[in-house]
């Protein structure tokens, strides 16, 4: 019976036999390793016997023999991966899985080498040149592989290639390619390796990780010795600088934040590549071969080394599962696989947090730990003068390094080359308030943080207890940090990274690394809160024109409310992840923390109000008709004072901006401005600094001043075609674009027209439609977009006084290149025009498109429909929310039309995967809907588009009945 891999066989001078099968020189070493993970995946000796049998069966038929061998080994790999997946699901040991897969690959290559050297190109008396070492490099050289990892091989020669060596290499490579594996390879002499390693940092890194597989061990040993002596020696600073620069460039591509909700597990910040970079640098500078040697060299202490192991094992678990789930080399932990991984890794749902959210929180905590390990290594490199000293920010970086000095405010801290450090090891034990004071002093003096000080802080976190949290001085220092004018976001982020922020404010600690499983929020909750503080500081600086109104209002708020605003932004989402509504729960937390931070009773009341109502202004601005007086009355009833509205406007601006790239835009800024100025007169007793008529006139005056190519008569005529609300809701650039579009369309004598453009900040394609207005217009446009495969993310609907509709539709961008997206936009607008000319059967075309695809399927949202007569004096307001998909808006508007409802105003918005569509409707007689029976029928009908397709098909008849009942009841 063939011996499984892992058992020792008797050695021979040139060939080895195990279980009756011969192996090439070096293969016995492969088999004799003390721990063989591949032994759990397949029996290498049995497979070797199969290959010998195939060689005898196909004697004289080399092509058939190669195919049979490749097929047998492909079967081995397929079955081995399936076995590795089952073992991973059982033991949940990611690194062990990566070792098994790598070891299986080692054995497969060994079998190919043995097969080629024995059956294809045997040599009895090899010359000096006919020797070769087969070496694993790159990721494969580390001895760890994910299921979809590439295989990097180096065929190492004494000095030149020979026919025999070339044949062996080709046999191995073609065998691997025929198995469907991805292989990178190089054939070099030792001299070539050394020469290229000196010139190319990528090759240098690959050789740094080189691992001998089999062949001539002496060749590999010579290369390693010369590499250490001729390349590595005295080049540490050069290598460190290159690797850190390479890391920065990589993070620019995949995202600078480690708290992106769809992280790249391999290349993202805090991912595996960061651990690899850390170890590359350690191997190069400290000349270590194994991670455990970092402990022996004092780079990490025992606790830090265990952390390194935990991070590595967790990230390998995630990466291997990702490859198994997707069946490919997928490195982005996207929404559509996060839930699958959470289940595989054993996470369960808790009150207020889904299983997937608990999994992702663990992921982000690990990413943070990887950052801590990187900082520790960099500190050691600085002490060896292998790395430049970091600075707090770019301004400080321009300052000259200053010698060590004691800070005048405290003898416990010193400034060491523009970095704050502790004066002695007992500063925190002696006075726990120093755990807050160190950050206060760093912010005050613009000092970066010395890694030794941060290590001491981390080891002293147990000193942050209820007594320190209640200490007035500690809370005063914290409030000054939070509302400081210099580098507030940077300092708070550092407090968060070392664990002080979560310990000092335990409610904040609960949201550290917490992700929200949706497509709207780009960052974890704690990262979002810290970014809000940064945006508020930017608003206050007045250097960014995009904040407009918020910057103006920041200069007018009462001085005592400045700190309240910073605290409110710090706390507004602090109750996320709890079973109750996070706004109301957050207000309770704010009432407890306000007095602790030293706020007065009145300021605490304002703070709690801001937290409780932080979503109100955004919701009303984006989903209500701002020209409806009832909308303004309801908003005024909530805010009650001009000062509160100012604070809420600023907070809302910062909150939206900090959600993620492209979320804040000129349209939302214009809506907030419109809501603010509509509500201002009611809050000031009828007096307004800029009343509605004046604001309309001012907007029209700006329009006149910019549209210089038109005559005064043409401008006056065009202005008269728009209702006042248009001039308040649409920004100047869009107004000018609309005017030229309308002018060109009418000059061409067209009854309807479309155009498109790109909004780079939001990543959307913007379509503009000009057509005669009619009740089904929005439904036809939405149906045409759905038929063309375009997903509407928001829409702005305007009607002119002469019966035209001027609609702006934003659709998700599909292609990265403008040329490709231009062709797609042309197809979509062509479909819209054909739909408006009644040349298409839109229901059939939309039905063929099917349900939503891709990431949307990963989400579950309970649909809601509300029918409200309190939000408008003249109209019934229908709000529909649920899981977005192509065609949804078409089905909703079609349903409303079938219900004999007239849509007078529509407010279409998408928040990630959630669609929130609000329609102002009347019956065909222009009256509001008040009948309870008809309201119930409307709700039932509007819920149907969210039902699974079989259910919708089964109930299509009852849907028509409900429509008829609704019409009769009306």
Describe this structure in words.
It is a single chain. By secondary structure, the protein is an alpha+beta fold. The relative contact order is 0.04. Strands 11-12-14-13-17-18-16-15 form an 8-stranded antiparallel beta sheet, sandwiched between helices. It contains 44 helices and 18 strands. The chain folds into 6 domains: 16-232, Beta Polymerase, domain 2, CATH 3.30.460; 250-383, Nucleotidyltransferases  domain 2 (Four Helix Bundle (Hemerythrin (Met), subunit A), Up-down Bundle); 392-503, Hydrophobic Seed Protein, CATH 1.10.110.30; 505-689, no CATH class; 691-743, no CATH class; 744-969, no CATH class. The protein starts with 15 loop residues before the first strand and ends with a helix. The radius of gyration is 34 Å and the shape is globular. 55% of the residues lie in helices and 11% in strands. Residues 949-970 are annotated as: Disordered. Residues 525-648 form the HD domain. It catalyses: [protein-PII]-uridylyl-L-tyrosine + H2O = [protein-PII]-L-tyrosine + UMP + H(+); [protein-PII]-L-tyrosine + UTP = [protein-PII]-uridylyl-L-tyrosine + diphosphate. Residues 1-406 are annotated as: Uridylyltransferase.
The total of helices stands at 44
Shape label: globular
Low-confidence stretches: 1-35, 394-400, 953-970
- Secondary structure class reads alpha+beta
The spatial strand order of the largest sheet comes to: 11-12-14-13-17-18-16-15
Helical amount among residues, as a percent range? 55-70%
Compute the gyration radius: what is it?
34 Å
- Percentage of β-strand residues: 5-15%
> Mean pLDDT across all residues, rounded?
85
Biased composition (Basic and acidic residues): 949-962
Family: Belongs to the GlnD family.
Protein name: Bifunctional uridylyltransferase/uridylyl-removing enzyme
InterPro entries: ACT-like_dom_sf, ACT_dom, HD/PDEase_dom, HD_domain, NT_sf, PII_UdlTrfase/GS_AdlTrfase, Polymerase_NTP_transf_dom, UTase/UR
